[in-house]
Give the backbone structure.
Amino acid sequence: MALALTEKNFDKTVNSGKVVLVDFWAEWCMPCRMIGPIFEELANEMDAEKVTFTKCDVDTERNIAVKYSITSIPSILFFKGGQVMDQVVGAVPKRVIVDKINELI
Amino acid sequence: MHDLIIIGGGPAGLTAGIYAARYKLKTVLIEKAPFTGGQLLKTSHIENYPGFDEQVLGYDLATKMENQAVRFGLEVKKEPVTKIEFSDDKKSVYTEENEYHAKTAIIATGSQPRMLGVPGEKEFYGRGVSYCGTCDAPFFKDKVVAVIGGGNTAIEEALHIAKYASRVYIIHRRDELRADKICQEKAFAEEKMEFVWDTIIKSIDFQTSEDRKITVFNKKTEKESKIKVDGVFVFIGLNPNTELFKGQIDLTKDGFIAQRPGEEMKTNIAGVFVAGDVRDKELRQIVNAAGDGAVAAFEANKFLTEHNI
């Protein structure tokens, strides 16, 4: 299960040292409904020691979305050591996400 | 060996799938995204698809189309296609994981939003630049937004965005809209809209969160000016997804798939058909994408029967 991020656990999570993916989503976002299950699949398939899958609801966590200038969802940010290393916007094929993770691991 | 391979899972491909499955053709549909629906998924409320007297959500319509096709036995694969080899006798489609071979094929790969090609567009995609009002309008609550374009999509999306934004500039290169009259009337009645005619966008600068602006150029007065906006939505038409077919299938100069004159949905290769937005045509709507899909499946079935294969 992708971990739900809030202002309380956001910084700690993205600073963990692992590669951390944050899926920015919202209830009203149709393409988000489609990328959600793929994200969950990846969370089950990939090595949890190396990569963490999280999600962030832009409606309830507006401040985080603003901080990272998120204006399109679904948007996935790839963090390593607290830094944004990469970003994908839109519902992309699973392979694209996997390739980006492998570049960062 | 399949009877038919359908490439692309938007309304054209899914409808072709429904018809082909009902003809009892052994059919596989290959969609590059992890889900079917294509551009339907970017549409919030569809008002002009027959049979829905109230609005229908693009997402719901897409889900229903796939379920309907699968119910009749369509096989759906979600794998990006990497290569195709089409000959008169055999149609081969390769994905990263698999290869598929069939006697006929339908190309229904659709199109995607055309980009402006101005400085700042790529850089700020997802950080102020958007091609999907339905997806991103809520981020611009009480903000100022520019919409580029003057067709139905641009105006419908602008009306949706105006539910959130405090002001919406419609920046259009001509001095009148191409959108249908109902759409235009709604737009002209919306107080938040401001029309900027005869104007093209030159660049986007969203470097800082306070000083966000676009540079525009008025073609009549030949004056350049800046407009402060928080976001830009681009709806200036479509680019066909035909990269895979270059060199094998005849394309128009704009890259759409040419159909043989007078022969519905047929390409230059026997047994390869085309359907939906990717086909060279004027009107690109869900309803005629579905129509194309039905005709293409019908033609594929006829081809198989006539050639007794």
